[in-house]
Structure formats: structure tokens, C-alpha cells
Amino acid sequence: MKNFPRLAGRSLALLLVLGSLSLSSCKKDSTTTVYGNWVKGNSFPGTVRSNAVSFVVNGVAYVGTGIDANSVKYNDFFSFNPANGSWLRLTPFPGVARYNAAAFSVGSFGYVGTGYDGTNYLRDFWQFDPSQTTTTTTNGTTTTTIGKWTQITDFPVNPGTTGRYGAVAGSVGNFGYVGCGFDGNNEKDFYKYDPSARTWSTFAGFPGEKRINAVAFTVNNVMYVGTGINNGQYVTDFFAYDPSKDAWTTKRQLANISNSTDSYDNSAVARSQAVAFTVGNNGFVTTGSNGAVRTDCYKYDPSLDTWTVMSPFLGVGRNAAVAFGIGNLGYVGTGYTGTTRLDDFWTFDPNVTQQ
Hints:
The chain is mainly β. 5% of the residues lie in helices and 41% in strands.
């Protein structure tokens, strides 16, 4: 992907910030400082793509699968080390190449499954162990592959279905969670995966609307789920799941809200094919579309149940990117805009202003 000159990008970012402050900020205040600094990093080393998956294990991110503009599906995987910004090719995902899959991590393992291969809705799920390496020698050439994939119990399916794609996934503590998505119909069911027992089970029913292409992030052992689209409508509800209580709680909707003390306009937060990540005690949502492709970025503070506008994403607006948080930074990359697939990656520091 070709990049705009940095100065032009910053000028555009400033215009977007000023516009966002008038439309979709927290409490309306012209003196509010808008935080967040986006910096372009090393591009994703694989083929440009969208609808990939990502997860983080022990401070290293893993990105793979997806689809390109020619409808070629991928099963390659790469790791990203934030310490030096380097990418490394890994053992390929052994399942059929796919896109719109789901992924999460628990402990020292990553998990990838479901998705669509262009013909079938998929339900197979796989565990990735990044600590394992395999060395082979063929015709005098030695090759070392990093990581080991092991197939686990298939994701549960509803009667008459074969799998699903566009599900949302997250993890809290020792369990992974996968739900919503499309299996012939939009769904709202959620399942918990227990790695120690290698079993899936249902849990407290998700109270929101059915949806596909939602986002999830975890803050302080609570998982938050929102955005997405249901039968052509961008959903605005937002919920928190606390495993210690096995209960969902309704949080501030992603919509216009006004009362005697606050004035919010968060209607632009509602979107599909967005990304979310966690940094510190806050979750962040950016990119995606709600009729128009978005670059605006929002911070969710669970302690206050509020959304705050941040500096907009400086890359081109996009759908179906991947994102993750490591340490004090967030990372967003790949995705598509129009018919163009992307491979650029950006870091986000939420605690400083745009440089």
C-alpha cells in the first residue's frame, strides 16, 4: 500500500478530530484535549488481506488467515514482536484456508476456529503453542518451523447448520468465549471453552441483539461486547460479561444520550467490521463502517461507563482489520477499503497527544 505524506496525514487527522469533537465526544467541551498518537510501523509481511484473526500470547501477537481482493483464502501465520517491531513467519494454520474466523488466547496458547472457506461455514477449532519448534532436513536443507497446531473439540453448532463465520471472541482468565456470528442466520448465542477439560459449554444468555462482525475486549477480568450489524441495521447496544457472576450487564449504549448532567453523541461509534483492543484499564474501538468507512477512535472507561473521542486512526479508513493491545500500546493493521486490501500496521499510544 502507498502512503500519503505524513504531513498530509496529520492535517487530515486534525480536521477529523475537530469534526469529531463537535459530533461524537463525551461531555461537550471545546477545551477538551483529544489524546492518542498514531505512528506507522512495519507492515504485515504476508500478502495484503482482510478478515484475518489475531491473538496475543506472552506479549507477542499472532496474525493469520484472511482473504485478498481475488478471493484467495490464506492459512499462513506470522508473529509480531513489539520489542523490535519485527515479524516472523510461523507454522501455517493446518485447517482449511478461511476468513472471518474467530480467535482468542488463554494462558500460553492461542485458539483459532470457525470462519468461511468460500463454500462452507466452518466449526473446526485449533490450539497454537508458540513454544514448540520443529526442525526438518530435506536434500541437505534444514528448515525450522515455529509453533505447533493441535486440533481441539469442534465449536458447537445449531441444528441444521455446519458452522459459522463473523463470530466475536474473547477471553477472561482461564476460559475463551465465542458467540454471535452467522450460520445461515444471525445468532446471539455464546459458548465458553475450557482448555483444561477441552470442552465447550453454554453460559448466561447474551441479552443483546443478534449480530455479525462485532468486537470484544477484556478489561480487569470483564469482557465487553458491542457493535456489529443485524439484518442491515448497525446495533448500538453494549454489554459486559463478568464470569465471577456469570452475568451480563447492560452498559452505555453507543447512541445519542442526553440528560440533565451529560450530553453525549456516540452515534458514530455504532459500526460493523470494526476492531477493538485493550490498553491499561480501557478498551478502544476504531475503523469499521456504518454506511461510511470510519477512522474515528473511541475509548471506553469501564469505571465511569463512558465513551471518549480519541485521535482518529491515521491510516486509510478500513473494514475487517485486526487489532491487539500489548503493554501501553494498541496496534491496528490489514483490512480493506473499497476493493483494496491492505498490509500497513499502526501503533497507538492513548496517553499522549498526536505528534
